[in-house]
Write a structure and sequence with these properties.
Blueprint: H1 3-20, H2 53-62, H3 66-79, H4 84-96, H5 100-113, H6 118-130, H7 134-149, H8 158-172
Helix pairs in contact: 1-4, 2-3, 3-4, 4-5, 4-6, 5-6, 6-7, 6-8, 7-8
């Protein structure tokens, strides 16, 4: 399993579940409890709600059913097509399918909608790494490093920004596999 898909799984499951559980979606801006703010648009997320498309998408993602996850994120996005957080989650499902070109397109849209979305920038950097796009990867790493330089004064979660910098930096400078 690639570093991108491992982190994507950890990020989606941990970040989304920890921060959107029982949160009323449609809150203003970022500042959720964990790494992600609740998705916007009036949906409510609860990990036990099997009728909610976001809940279904997360469950599908966690079991590796990326096609179903994409389908359910699309359903959630039909109500709020400009939700950068949901777009980021959908892109992570694309990464799980190893469709990095599709993920890149979705993540670029998420960044256009929310230029300060650390998660979208992190995933975009990891996607550029998977695509071997050094220029794009370096651009995202520089953005994340500049963001980290303003923390904690100008960011809600400095630890999240540092983790994003570390992950994208590691993707920029992968350690060679040890001969075994």
């Amino acid at each position: 399993m690639s570093r991108v898909s491992v982190f994507a799984g950890m990020s989606l499951a941990g970040a989304l579940i920890a921060t959107t559980a029982t949160a009323q979606v449609g809150s203003t801006g970022h500042g959720g409890v964990g790494d992600k703010a609740p998705p916007k648009g009036g949906l409510q997320y609860s990990p036990n709600d099997t009728r909610n498309p976001i809940s279904i998408a997360i469950a599908a993602y966690e079991r590796g059913d990326y096609s179903r996850a994409i389908e359910m994120f699309d359903e959630a996005l039909s109500a709020t097509p400009d939700d950068p957080d949901l777009l980021t989650y959908k892109a992570m499902a694309y990464e799980g399918r190893r469709n990095f070109i599709g993920a890149r397109q979705i993540l670029l849209q998420a960044v256009r909608l929310d230029r300060d979305n650390v998660d979208a920038h992190r995933e975009l950097g990891l996607t550029y790494a998977a695509l071997k796009d050094t220029k794009g990867l370096q651009g995202e790493l520089k953005w994340l490093q500049a963001k980290a330089a303003t923390c904690p004064a100008k960011c809600d979660n400095p630890d999240k920004v540092k983790r994003a910098v570390d992950l994208v930096a590691a993707a920029a400078n992968p350690t060679p596999a040890k001969p075994g």
